[in-house]
Amino acid sequence: MRDTHRTSSERTEFEVRWSSRFLGWNVLFMFLLFPVYAATAVFASGYFRLLGLALAIVFAVLVPYVGVAGSKQLRQRPAAVALNDFGVTFDRHDPVAWETLREVRLGRMKPHLLFILHPNHVAFLPKQATDPHSLTPRKRMTSRIYGTTLVLMMQPVIPSGEDILAAVERLSDVPLSCPLRQ
User: Fold this and answer.
1) pTM of the predicted model, to two decimals?
2) pLDDT (tens digit per residue) in 55-66
3) Cα–Cα distance measured from residue 67 to residue 74, given in angstroms and rounded to the nearest whole number
């Protein structure tokens, strides 16, 4: 029986792990927004009071949920990506062999205005394009923007994109591209 919640069963050479610091900062930021919306609900009038009340309720539910779900994921599935001699395995995806990849690219996130602070991603580009009709809408959009569904945002993971490219170079002969260096 195959366990779809684990990385590949091959020997792991390099793991990219979810960052607990990133989760903590996001939960803290949402926690700090809650009093702002609660104060808006108390001191504002008209539509702003209703908007503040609605957002305070949303954040009162969202903060504990994100904190508990995020810490549970960090405990149960700490690895986002595993790289080994055979290929790459994303969490909750089937392994992808190095032979099926055309290029591994470190680039900027798109749209650029939304990702100002940590704008990098690593994309594993396949040799053959996937049929867009077989993809979910989210994966179809990711494939259209980045050319692949195998994209790893660098903000919520450790180590850095440069370290991931170094591991890919060490483990495979897949060409690397880093437009950020040019």
Assistant:
1) 0.72
2) 999 999 989 998
3) 11
